[in-house]
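Lab notebook: predicted structure, single chain.

Context: the supervisor wants predicted structures on file for every construct in the current expression panel, including those that have not yet been purified. This is the next one on the list. No modifications to the sequence; it matches the entry in the shared construct table.
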Amino acid sequence: MNALPLTAGTTLLMVLLMFGTTFMVGKARHRFGIMAPSVSGHPQFERAYRVQMNTLEWAVMTLPCLWVFGAYVSDFYAMLLGLMWILGRVLYAIGYYRDPGERARGFVIAALAFAALGLGGAAGVIVTLARAAG
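Prediction complete. Output recorded below exactly as produced.
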């Protein structure tokens, strides 16, 4: 694993982003008096909660793709695409906190990064398998 330090660093930044969205939910719970286990109440709390949940949902798919891409294509380009995903998720969160209708740009950026990681990683695995078989 020492061969993928950029992918590892990007993973830690993704974890930091997930922690940040969790912190924002806790902050909104406190600010608007929404006691656990409730997940509804004030619209600002609900936005923070949806940002957190959507980020977690996408991270579950993105992290394996990041590592497969890093291992089979490029540590450097995995980092770049991972940072693009993080930027997209941050823009998504900012837009969603302001107005849910403003989340699209960040969503598209993150989704494109995810697609590149997934498709690129799959291509890298296929090429490696083809070389091993040939």
